[in-house]
């Protein structure tokens, strides 16, 4: 499968791509919350929330869509942090970028490792999708128009 060099991503307010846009100097960003299981879900004994680590991520890209860095915050397990705290932290991280405009972006595939886990927009050759990892939260595919599947 031939994947595009750049992937347009549509901003959808109050959904997976709500925190998407550009800074005043033209750099692009994508912020969201996600999670990583500390054990496979099938191996969970007891409360599942003890085995789910909650993250806040803010990926940064240059004007051409090249990956620069990821700022992240591990809030703790799902039992230790709630959505309100996660989104408050995400709001703060985006505010620290300065003047921004929420908008669609166009970026290149990327990946980074945080706490031993792989995060990023990663191609899946077999399915033909480019998936937001971990957890394949959303996936992009032809016609590569910015829309995505959940």
UniProtKB/TrEMBL annotation:
Gene source species: Lacibacter luteus
Protein name per the record: Uncharacterized protein
